[in-house]
Write a structure and sequence with these properties.
By secondary structure, the protein is of the alpha/beta class. It has helices spanning 3-16, 42-58, 73-81, 94-102, 138-147, 160-169, 181-189, 200-208, 255-270, 272-280, 289-312, and strands at 31-35, 62-66, 88-93, 114-123, 125-129, 153-156, 174-177, 195-199, 213-217, 243-250, 283-285. The chain has a 6-stranded mixed β-sheet with strand order 2-1-3-10-4-11, with helices on both faces. Strands 7-6-8-5-9 form a 5-stranded mixed β-sheet, covered by helices on one side. Helix 6 links the parallel strand 6 and strand 7.
Length: 317
């Protein structure tokens, strides 16, 4: 190899080399948290709560970036493609487990492209009806769907809640996909669709104001804020579309950096004001053991949703 060729090679290598990130020096600049849904939703509120506490502990700004679109896939792909140095994190949820089943073409792989930093919480999911809807509970909904195939319109960011119900009951319900739950609620209140599913904390205030009415709880336990509302499983045994939330990093993020972030987030979620704010939005903070369980839980849920997708044929692409 000539001297000129050697110098050219070394210069090219130097131009593309990125200094390794170590926990001792991390972080040296702002950290961002990608939220794959619009502002105002549960994941956005969780991210902003965590950003405040994490920023104080890291002594660096923690910026929340909303990257909405394609039922959470745009933001998830942005996280998967981010530089794996600990400076880009993301809030993922059970929606991504479902997307791995319902989307046959994704530009990321849920099991390969992310590393869980910390499980942060779980929340109930509610199925609600617009005031004009001709049904008041799950039993009436199923009877209406049987008598009026395709007439009931369901709106949400993802079809997983209604796909599971359709696959288990044969109910003929039409899905309308929205970028954010707020848009679906506006259409329901405005009389354009009959049903919406979403995080309980976002829907409970609207139920109390009489803008929508609760049909059923899509997760396995009744909610203390709505003690008289039955779970869907009480009418359809085995039904469960509950929601988990976690902080993730790109898969190649150095282990020592992930461990540092995991420790700091663990301290944040223990803070009394963070627990209170989580409770205010209907999220129960996860214990430390939930993080190790996340990969298995994601695999189990994705397998369940793949079975639903195969039965219904309701693939997103």
């Amino acid at each position: 190899m000539s001297l000129r060729v050697l110098i050219t090679f070394l210069l090219a290598a130097a131009a593309t080399w990125v200094a390794p990130v170590h926990a001792e020096t991390f972080p040296g600049k702002a950290v961002r948290i990608i939220v794959p849904f619009p502002p105002g939703g549960t994941q956005d509120l969780l991210a902003r709560t965590l950003a405040e506490g994490l920023g104080q502990r890291l002594k660096q700004p923690v910026i929340v970036e909303n990257r909405a679109g394609a039922a959470g896939n745009v933001g998830a792909e942005a996280l998967a493609r981010a530089t794996p140095d600990g400076y880009t994190l993301g809030i993922l949820s059970g929606v991504q487990s479902a997307n791995a089943a319902f989307y046959r073409k994704l530009n990321y792989n849920l099991e390969r492209d992310f590393v869980p930093v910390r499980a942060i919480g779980e929340s109930g999911v509610l199925l609600v009806a617009a005031p004009h809807a001709p049904f008041r509970n799950v039993e009436e909904l199923l009877a209406y769907a049987k008598a009026n195939p395709g007439r009931a319109n369901f709106g949400s960011t993802t079809s997983l809640t209604i796909d599971l119900l359709r696959s288990m009951t044969g109910a003929d319900i039409t899905m309308v996909t929205y970028k954010g739950i707020g848009e679906a609620l506006q259409d329901a209140i405005g009389g354009r669709i009959e049903m919406v599913a979403g995080p309980a904390p976002q829907l409970i205030p609207l139920i109390r104001d009489g803008k929508v009415r609760a049909l059923g709880i899509a997760s396995t336990s009744r909610l203390k804020d709505l003690p008289g509302v039955k779970t869907v499983a009480e009418s359809v045994p085995g039904y469960d579309a509950g929601m988990w939330y976690g902080v993730f990093a790109p898969a190649a993020t150095p282990r020592e950096v992930v461990q540092k972030l995991q420790g700091e987030l663990g301290m944040v979620v223990k803070q009394a004001d963070v627990v209170r704010r989580f409770n205010d939005i209907g999220v129960q903070a996860s214990g430390p053991g939930a993080t190790a369980d996340l990969p298995t839980r994601m695999q189990v849920e994705s397998a369940r949703w793949r079975a639903v997708a195969a039965r219904t044929g309701n693939y997103a692409n």
